[in-house]
Design brief:
alpha/beta; seven-stranded mixed β-sheet; five-stranded parallel β-sheet; 12 strands; Rossmann fold; Four Helix Bundle (Hemerythrin (Met), subunit A)
Amino acid sequence: MAFLLQSMQSFRVRITLIFFTLILLIIILFIGYYKIEKRNDNFFEVVNQLNTINYNFSKSTVNFQASLLYDYEVEDNFDKVRNDLGLYRKGLNTFKLELETIKNELTKPFINTHDDFDDIIDDLNSIQQSALNNKILDASAIKKLFDAVNTNHSKLDDKLNSLLLRLNQEAENKNKFLQYNTTILFILMVIIVLGFTYFLAQRLTRDLRTLNLKMKNFNNFNEEPFISNIEDINRLDKTFELVKSKLRELESDLEEAIKISEYKSVFLANMSYEIRTPLNSVLGMINMLKQSDLTTEQQIQLEIAEYSSEHVLQLVSMILDNSKVEGGDIQLELTAIDLKSDLSKLVKVFEFEAWDNRLEFEFKFLADENQKFLLLGDLKRIKQILTNLLSNALKFTNSGKISLTVDQTVGPDDYQIVTFYVKDTGIGIPPDKAKRIFSDFENNHLSIMDYYGGTGLGLIASCQLINLMGGELKLESKENEGSIFYFSIQLKKTLNLERELPVSAPILKNQFDYKFSVLVAEDNIMNQKVIKFLLEQQGADCTFVKNGSDAVKLFKILDFDMVFMDIFMPEMDGYEATKLIKHTKKYSEHHIPIIAVSASAFAEDIENAKKAGIDDFLAKPIETQKLKELLVKYTPRNTNFN
């Protein structure tokens, strides 16, 4: 009994009991409705049976009368008349038995039809008696029998029709009564459901409403715990109190974090001031020394000191700038810039630092020497990004080479697409961590921290800056081989742009004398623009897709003379797409050349490309001369290339 009382305190038990009680009431109502409907159906069945008896009796009587006339007057066959008379008497007995059965059935629904059935049965007895009295068959007896049957049949038919009319009216009344009961049952069910719903909403949720009010008054930490008769609500209240306690702790931690962040900002500002002040003095003294007479060796040493000092100053600025970027407090400042000239000093600083670390440093600036113009961009932020990336490359490279490549060869219309590549031969990053490096940077570099004693500088800030400029920082890396960080940005050419008259580009035509068609699979929009510009300069007609799956589908539908396939793409990479293309019927008939395009040009990548069936490999940044050589090599035999 104690267990039962304890169970009743559970909200779920109460709800379950009420639910099953409601279901039981509905079942009882449906059983009552079913019994009424079944009783009414039995009544309709009896009425139909009586209709059938009336029809069969009338048909039997008419047939018997016709037999009397035909057999006697036409054939004068008294034996046939006797035989028909016997069959008719048997039929009358059957009708009497069926009427007795229906009479007994109709007494069950308490319908007073007993006298009506007795009259009908008496008429049947009269007809039967008339048939028995005519033992000697002659013309007079047959005529007398015919008249008696005809008279009694008319009377019996009238009585049966009257009884049927009465029973049909009674059936119609019962049908209306059933519809009325159905309506009452439906209304009763609605009232019961609404009543139980109201009871649940008011009685069972009373404690829930009280608890909800307490939750709304969330900031009242001095409120007493709520006590309910329902154990589940008590558990909810305890959980709510625990959440309040945790939130108080979080608020305290948040206040502490805000204070620490404020201290960090103050510290960075003070550090910047304390470092910049002596650095300015150092740089001032260096400039003064440069004005004096120095030997060649002293000039070299002074130049190294100047670049090193500027590098320290640049690192201090970079730390402050990264902090601002990560806090979202940054705006681009566009000015006219000449990248080759403006980046020369930055490159020189990293050349000396690489030399100091016994590393090779390579700088390439790819541009069309015939075109002279400036670009509108934020040079400070571009330098900040490159400083971050080059500092990381130096930090994580023990031996080998570091290279910076700036590709400024693509310039459609009034814009210039500039792509920056920072490549090193350092420790590299495992593929699984490389995919998450920008989203969870701190966790993915724990192993690098353990080995080098620090993390990569400003990758998050660099990503945000590149995104602000409309580009995307991308990474391709091989563990223990090295990494390539690269990004493309679109910069507007200045109004004082000096253009030379365009030189007609060589037009590629295939053997059917229409423009050379190229399918390019590349997921990066900036890279698409670069490849499109370079290929269209050579007269190609480009069609782009963003992944290997789309490349396979489009290859099956359209005709192409060549395919340029990026290696690393979403959904399906270039290796898998190449394998699927080479298994198509179209490729087996035409052998369309497939060229891999990737910034990851390690030996392993080139070997994997060969295994996948790729015909050749084109490394990013794309060199125009290398591209021309591949186009000449793989164009159809009848192609004219100038």
